[in-house]
Specification:
Blueprint: E1 7-9, E2 12-18, H1 20-37, E3 44-49, H2 53-61, E4 68-78, E5 81-90, E6 100-108, H3 112-122, E7 128-136, E8 149-153, E9 159-160, E10 176-179
Parallel strand pairs: 3-4, 3-6, 6-7, 7-8
Antiparallel strand pairs: 1-2, 2-10, 4-5, 9-10
Helix pairs in contact: 1-2
The structure holds inosinic acid and magnesium ion.
The site of inosinic acid (IMP) has 16 residues, from strand 4, strand 6 and helix 3.
Length: 182
């Protein structure tokens, strides 16, 4: 079922893009694909906070196998615009060397965040790195990033829901909503 209600957050109006059911079905598919790909490898999921926490929590529960989960907090966004610089607000406490890493991101927009973070991880000699993003905006790509699994490719419009926020609001929406034109 497609949600038909628009959502207002602060000064902006958003219209439904993906229903909760559609999101859940896709995340289960990604979990199954990761289960196959990492069978017996005991991967370490690294969730990029804050936006990816909802996606990561569903994704790890659809991963059937032993795994660990860690978190980093990176921040580059203010309002609906990227600020152009990335801050590490909280670092990873797990040992990375020799591990199979699955990096979990909410959305790849310009690619700056993931480009920066994957390079950082690379320097710590993991066994492998796999990048998974819930959403990707191909038209906004400005940095080279190899993303192995993508939930949905979307238009270059600001979205909220399923962990993604506008000024801190909207993360708890179970579906995804897109900024209305005008
Ligand atoms: P990038 O570094 O330009 O790829 O931007 C990635 C980060 O910006 C994501 O992890 C999000 O936190 C944030 N972001 C990018 N696009 C959106 C959006 O449409 N809605 C909410 N947050 C976004
Ligand atoms: Mg984010």
């Amino acid at each position: 079922m497609q949600p038909d209600e628009t959502v207002t957050i602060l000064d902006l109006t958003f219209t439904p893009l993906f229903s909760e059911q559609k999101v859940q079905a896709r995340v289960r598919e990604l979990g199954t694909a990761l289960t196959d790909r990492f069978a017996g490898q005991k991967p370490l999921f690294i969730s990029i906070l804050s936006g990816a926490f909802v996606f990561a929590s569903d994704l790890i529960r659809s991963f059937k196998g032993d795994c660990e989960v860690g978190f980093v907090k990176l921040s580059s966004y203010k309002g609906t615009q990227s600020t152009g610089s990335i801050q590490t607000v909280m670092g990873l406490e797990k040992e990375i060397a020799g591990r199979h890493l699955i990096v979990v991101e909410d959305i790849v927009d310009t690619g700056r965040t993931l480009h920066y973070f994957l390079n950082l991880l690379e320097q710590q000699r993991p066994a492998s790195i796999c990048a998974v993003t819930f959403l990707r905006k191909p038209e906004a790509a400005a940095f080279p990033v190899q993303v192995d699994f993508v939930g949905f490719d979307i238009e270059d419009k600001f979205v909220v829901g399923y962990g993604l926020d506008y000024e801190g609001w909207g993360r708890n929406l179970p579906g995804v909503y897109q900024l209305s034109a005008g």
